[in-house]
Design goal:
Elements (H helix, E strand, L loop, with lengths): L4 H15 L3 E2 H7 L5 H17 L2 E5 L2 E4 L9 H12 L1 E3 H8 L3 H13 L3 E3 L4 E4 L10 H42 L1
Antiparallel strand pairs: 1-3, 2-3, 4-6, 5-6
Helix pairs in contact: 1-2, 4-5, 5-6
Length: about 180
C-alpha cells in the first residue's frame, strides 16, 4: 500500500520527537525529505491539520511538540450512554447487543446511573432515563476505589522490592562470611 503524504510527515515527526521534544517546520521538512515548493505548502497544511486534531501542539512561533494521534474509538460506557439516550428505555440485553458490553457490566453501569438519579428501574428489567445530561455521567465512586487499589498495589510492590533488596544484601553478607572462613 502506498504511503500517504500525511503518513510520511507523521513518521518524520515521530522519529524527530524521540530526540527532539520541540521541533520546527524546517526540522520536519528535512526529516521528511521535502524537496519542492509545492510539497512545502502541503507540509504546512498537514502541520495545521495535525495541530487542529491535537496530534501536534504549537509551543511557540513555528515550534511544535508531538502529542500522538488520538483515537476516535468510543469506550463501552460512551457507546452505552449513546444507546440509552437514543432509546430512552433499555434493557441490559440492549446494551449488550448495541454497545458490546457484558451483561454484568451493563447492569453495574445502569445501577450506578440509578444511584445518581439519571435512570429509574421499570418492570421487566427495563431502565428509563429520567434526567438526561449531555455529558456522560462518571462513576466517581468506582474511580476513587480504583485509585485507592492502585495506590495500595504500588505500596505493596515497593515493600516487595525493599524486602528483595534486603534479602540480596543478606545473601551477599553470608557469601562474604563464607569466603572469609574458607
Amino acid at each position: 500500500m502506498k504511503e500517504t503524504f500525511a503518513g510520511r510527515i507523521r513518521q518524520a515527526i515521530k522519529t524527530l520527537s524521540r530526540n527532539m521534544p520541540v521541533m520546527t517546520s524546517t526540522d520536519i521538512s528535512i526529516a521528511a525529505e521535502i524537496k519542492t515548493r509545492e510539497d512545502q505548502k502541503r507540509l504546512m497544511m498537514t502541520i495545521g491539520d495535525f495541530c487542529k486534531s491535537g496530534e501536534l501542539v504549537r509551543v511557540g512561533r513555528g515550534r511544535y511538540q508531538y502529542r500522538g494521534k488520538k483515537s476516535n474509538k468510543l469506550t463501552i460506557q460512551e457507546r452505552m450512554w449513546r444507546v440509552l439516550r437514543a432509546s430512552r428505555v433499555v434493557k441490559a440485553e440492549d446494551l449488550q447487543q448495541m454497545a458490546g458490553a457484558s451483561e454484568s457490566y451493563a447492569l453495574e453501569w445502569l445501577q450506578m446511573l440509578e444511584c445518581q438519579g439519571i435512570v429509574r428501574r421499570l418492570k421487566n428489567n427495563k431502565w428509563q432515563i429520567v434526567h438526561d445530561t449531555i455529558e456522560m455521567p462518571k462513576n466517581e465512586e468506582k474511580a476513587e476505589r480504583l485509585r485507592h487499589i492502585r495506590l495500595r498495589k504500588k505500596e505493596a510492590l515497593e515493600a516487595i522490592n525493599e524486602a528483595s533488596n534486603a534479602i540480596s544484601a543478606a545473601r551477599a553478607a553470608i557469601e562474604r562470611m563464607e569466603e572469609d572462613n574458607a
